[in-house]
Amino acid sequence: MAKTDSKPSEELILNAAVKVFTRKGYSGARMEEIAKEAGINRALLHYYFRDKETMFNIIFETKFKEFFTGIFGAFQSDVPFLEKIKSIVDHEITVLTKHPGLARFVIMEIAQQPDRLIQFGQKLGLNPRTMLKHFQKEVQQNVQQGEIRPIDGRQLLMNIISICIYPFVAKPIIKTMMQMDENTFMDLMEKRKNDAYEFIINAIRP
Amino acid sequence: MAKTDSKPSEELILNAAVKVFTRKGYSGARMEEIAKEAGINRALLHYYFRDKETMFNIIFETKFKEFFTGIFGAFQSDVPFLEKIKSIVDHEITVLTKHPGLARFVIMEIAQQPDRLIQFGQKLGLNPRTMLKHFQKEVQQNVQQGEIRPIDGRQLLMNIISICIYPFVAKPIIKTMMQMDENTFMDLMEKRKNDAYEFIINAIRP
DNA sequence: GTCTATATGCAGATAGAC
DNA sequence: GTCTATCTGCATATAGAC
């Protein structure tokens, strides 16, 4: 459903397209459904955006950015290590709670076409190499200073990311299995900001 | 690519279909591609399996089973708590290392149509309610006995599952970002069987 | 800008020869 | 069983009226 009256705009159409693309993915999305969701005609989609692929790319770039820039920022911020972890966890869960389907969408479309990661990553100036190196060095330092237990930086990185992101990727499964409604799930994620952080801290503190 | 000679069989075709469906998902998969992958003709697919949906359902059920039954088994086995965690982690990572794309496929197709979880879950006699209750009780007991720190069972469950599964779901992203080839990734997952286990244990041990 | 009508192409499915 | 040829329908895209 959409609106009943008046002027569609690029903005309105894009919002509709976001909903459909993030729910169905590129191949599952239908122009007809986007049009209906926006309350307009199929032809109008082509008037505003040349074709499906163009539309998709615009949306994907936005979502890609939403998904990655925050993490990169949090990782590169210049605060004490444990504090940094706190802010990464907090930021990730906050973002994903607000944007249901974001993580799943980005991950799936990259899996379909991995070169998009390079392509859009460069376009946004993201540099995973630097980020990873930096993180690993930081881990090493903190290990040497006895702040945290010895651990492989890559594994720690994967653990943090996994704990934050997976529940949203598998949200339909988790909700069903744990018999939660939307609000219960949201509450659980809200609590998770602390629970996940403490879990990680306990895991790495000597 | 496929084979150059001789008798296709249901088996051969199904293997081809698995590859294509798990890579592309239902909506992205093309009968033509499956046929090519199997080295046969499109019409023959329809001879063996009525239509695309029939084919998909057969494959999905298999993959669903592969994905879930192992976990459920591991969770319900009757061994000490920490040992159980060890076997869950070990089992999950082993399975997913062997079946690239399994987790992503199952999660994505359930996200597309969440009722498949109920539908196929019942068909296989899985009972998430019981499993979850059992796990939570176990957590509670271990907390009371001072074996592990106080923790919300649902969060712990999500943490364990996340840590095991997410790296495979996001494999294309992780491989690219960490600049790993297939073998390096496999090695890292092999090591992860222990690393992940220790991480979890450290997180929950008092 | 927004619509209706239409063109084009492709994917799923069937008919029928061998 | 396995193929070629063909039908059908749907999804994307365009033309053109208003």
Helix and strand layout, with pairings?
The structure is a homodimer of 206-residue chains.
Chain A: H1 10-28, H2 31-38, H3 42-48, H4 52-76, H5 81-98, H6 102-112, H7 115-123, H8 128-144, H9 153-169, H10 171-177, H11 182-204
Helix pairs in contact in A: 1-2, 1-4, 1-6, 4-5, 4-6, 5-9, 5-11
The structure holds a DNA duplex (18 and 18 nucleotides).
Structural summary, described in words:
- The structure is a homodimer of 206-residue chains.
- With 206 residues, chain A is an all-alpha fold.
- Chain A folds into two domains: 1-50, Arc Repressor Mutant, subunit A (Orthogonal Bundle); 63-204, Tetracycline Repressor, domain 2, CATH 1.10.357.
- Chain A is built from eleven helices and no strands.
- Chain A is globular, with a radius of gyration of 20 Å.
- The N and C termini of chain A lie far apart (54 Å).
- The model of chain A has no long low-confidence stretch (mean pLDDT 95).
- Chain A binds a DNA duplex (18 and 18 nucleotides) through residues 7-8, 30-32, 40-44, 46-48, 50-52.
Structure at a glance:
The structure is a homodimer of 206-residue chains. The first copy, chain A, has helices at 10-28, 31-38, 42-48, 52-76, 81-98, 102-112, 115-123, 128-144, 153-169, 171-177, 182-204.
CATH T-level topology of the largest domain in chain A: Tetracycline Repressor, domain 2
Structural class category of chain A: mainly alpha
CATH architecture of the largest domain in chain A: Orthogonal Bundle
Strand content of chain A: under 5%
Shape of chain A: globular
Briefly, what CATH class of the largest domain in chain A?
Mainly Alpha
What do we call the CATH homologous superfamily of the largest domain in chain A? Tetracycline Repressor, domain 2
List the domain count of chain A as a whole number.
2
Counted by DSSP, the helix tally of chain A is 11
C-alpha Rg of chain A (nearest Å): 20 Å
Assembly of the depicted chains: homodimer
Order of helices and strands of chain A: HHHHHHHHHHH
Span of the ends, CA to CA of chain A:
54 Å
User: Which whole number gives the mean pLDDT of chain A?
Assistant: 95
Instruction: List segments of chain A where confidence is low: pLDDT < 50 over at least 5 consecutive residues.
Output: none
Helix fraction bin of chain A = over 70%
Count all strands of chain A and give the number.
0
Instruction: Name the pair of protein chains with the most residues at their interface, and give those residue counts.
Output: A-B, 51 and 51 residues
Main sheet record of chain A: none
